Amino acid sequence: xxxxxxxxxxxxxxxxxxxxxxxxxxxxxxxxxxxxxxxxxxxxxxxxxxxxxxxxxxxxxxxxxxxxxxxxxxxxxxxxxxxxxxxxxxxxxxxxxxxxxxxxxxxxxxxxxxxxxxxxxxxxxxxxxxxxxxxxxxxxxxxxxxxxxxxxxxxxxxxxxxxxxxxxxxxxxxxxxxxxxxxxxxxxxxxxxxxxxxxxxxxxxxxxxxxxxxxxxxxxxxxxxxxxxxxxxxxxxxxxxxxxxxxxxxxxxxxxxxxxxxxxxxxxxxxxxxxxxxxx
Length: 280
Description:
alpha+beta; Ribosomal RNA-processing protein 43; Exosome_comp_Rrp42_subfam; nucleus; mRNA 3'-UTR AU-rich region binding; cytoplasm
């Protein structure tokens, strides 16, 4: 009966829960879904990570390639991120070119990683103006039940945290390149950036922050995704992205930043623990 009411009157259904200070799935407003993480699940990739935020499931695989650096930045390599929302993950998406939503998420993920200084692109340069590493990070959403950005960031950082680069030698005279896959060096990373997203429900008295929103909550809050994303790395705030939704008071903004900072420590511990157990 509740599911029928949800389909016929979704706003009334949602509001009836919010007025009782609980979400339809039983969570509190500031409660996150359980996170599951698995490292190196794709054997054909250099590194990979599978992440589940509740039912939301994404997988990230990293591939390596050698290329010449850009002429305007001869001492840097490349980090290329791409997010795919395949038809399998939601009935909203169709086969064909990437949807606008997928392109937006790709841009958000790339911006968060770049702003966090997680990877120094100069560390990917092998020979200035001649040779550098290109890291292709392909992220595929297998099940979209909301808050895809947070899951993508976790999968990406967990994947790169375990990446090791083969040793490369370059002969400037003959331009011969030799790659030794048996002798590897771990990729240098700076901290572990974590994104925390919120949906903003415009209640009659004040807007309500809903942490880690699922798909239904995102729709009820007027967006095709989370309304605000806060990212931290190494104890520093490295980004706040507001994309639609209701307005927030200064106190609510501070509350969102505080909750995001607290959650960062939990996600960092999860990734480190998972990597440690994988190495045992």
